[in-house]
Amino acid sequence: MTKLCVNIDHVATIREARQTIEPDPIVAATEACLGGADGITLHVREDRRHMQDDDLFRLREIVEVPLNLELAATPEMVSLALKSEPDMAMIVPEGRNEVTTEGGLDVVSDVEYLREVVESLTGAGMRVSAFVDAKEEQIDAVLAAGFTVCEIHTGSFAESFIQNDFSLTNPKVQQERDRVQLAVQHAVDIGLQCNAGHGLTHRNVGGIASIPNISELHIGHSIVSRSVIVGMQNSVREMKKQMKDSLHD
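^ that's the sequence the OP posted. Answer follows.
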């Protein structure tokens, strides 16, 4: 079954809104693991709008499941990854004015530089992933740059789900799902581990979790949002149930 890695960034978003000490994302990560999370994901952005460096180092000490660090491919952030040594580093695009990541990394345009970044991180013992759109040319470039993992951006699928009456059977939603499925299969065919994420919720996750050969789903905002109502452990359990149930639909 596809593993669930819980992104805890937006626990820190709430904390930083008041510039205080709570809620603590490390406690949230612990609760997520008690709920069945197979991994913990965080994004330390260059502007430090939510997760802070200290959060990363505390998570590295406490979390027993694999830790995935999302980061921009800048010297500062690569240095942070080398110091903290997460289990996996995922290279993502990053813009100061965006609310959240708006699309996949353009690996095609930057293969040589990214190859240097990948070599540096893999040399320190990390798996290295690239967050890319569901396009074969980008996935091929991921392999050419030396990545062993890619994560397919599911944002277009998630947006189509919202725009089309929250229906997984809507033809436009199905079309976006099919694009993801083709991308996943291509990634696996050329030898990459393939993960997926972005915009996935308790209501739409079944559309992606039912796709064969996805190793991990990385989901954050929906789980954190739901946890405000039912608690982090229950929110994670509900998401895993939705993922499991999708295999029998």
